[in-house]
Amino acid sequence: MGKIDNNKKQKEDALLNTAFDLFTRQGIHKTSISDIVNQAGVAKGTFYLYFKDKYDIRNKLIAKKASQVFRAADDALHRTDISCLEDQVIFLIDNIIDQLTENKSLLNFISKNLSWGVFKNELLYSGAADINFYNIYSSIFEHSGKTYKNPEILVFMIIELVNSTCFSCILYEDPVPVKELKPYLYESIKQLMQSMEAR
């Protein structure tokens, strides 16, 4: 990476890091582009070289932060000898839940803003180097030897199930702490996967 490219990357990272800090502290609606550029120490025009508006930077942040979580889970999976697809999926989910339990502000940010449209467009099909969920998802399904009626629908349902059930359990321990939820959640995911397996 040359000096100019490095400088551009530093500015983009400064904008992303600043936006994440502001969005998690005061919310996206109370954060203006002026707030972001002032705190990042860059000109307003620089913002528009990288992002269309604050919702664009939010979507890219969701993709970036979520991909970091997915990558850490995938790295942990590769250090195991788990070969069963269902067990691999449960391992990944368990690792992701634990990461988000450790970083509740990240959970709050991702859960409030992650929609299937953002997930599909930014996470699955983005060409950015740090977005690799699609590769993780494709790899574990392709190497499993199993086929599913509609793998994309299956992944969508698993993500929605985990997202909707874990949020309150992690943040508020309501209706139960997430540790108590996990066995029920994982059994439900296994049953869902089995029901969608092509026979």
Give me some keywords for this one.
single chain, 199 residues, mainly alpha, Arc Repressor Mutant, subunit A, 76% helix
Characterise this structure.
The protein folds into 2 domains: 1-51, Arc Repressor Mutant, subunit A; 61-195. Helix 1 (3-26) crosses helix 4 (54-78), helix 4 (54-78) packs across helix 7 (116-124) and helix 9 packs antiparallel against helix 10 (178-195). The chain has 10 helices and no strands. By secondary structure, it is mainly α.
E-strand count: 0
Radius of gyration: 18 Å
Strand content: under 5%
Question: How much helicity do the residues have?
Answer: over 70%
The coarse silhouette is: globular
Mean pLDDT: 85
Helix and strand sequence: HHHHHHHHHH
Task: Please mark out the parts with pLDDT under 50 across 5 or more consecutive residues, or reply none.
Answer: 124-129
- Main sheet, how many strands, which sense, barrel? none
By helix and strand content, what is the structural category? mainly alpha
Question: What topology emerges from the helices and strands here?
Answer:
Blueprint: H1 3-26, H2 33-40, H3 44-50, H4 54-78, H5 85-102, H6 104-113, H7 116-124, H8 133-142, H9 151-172, H10 178-195
Helix pairs in contact: 1-2, 1-4, 4-5, 4-6, 4-7, 5-9, 5-10, 6-9, 9-10
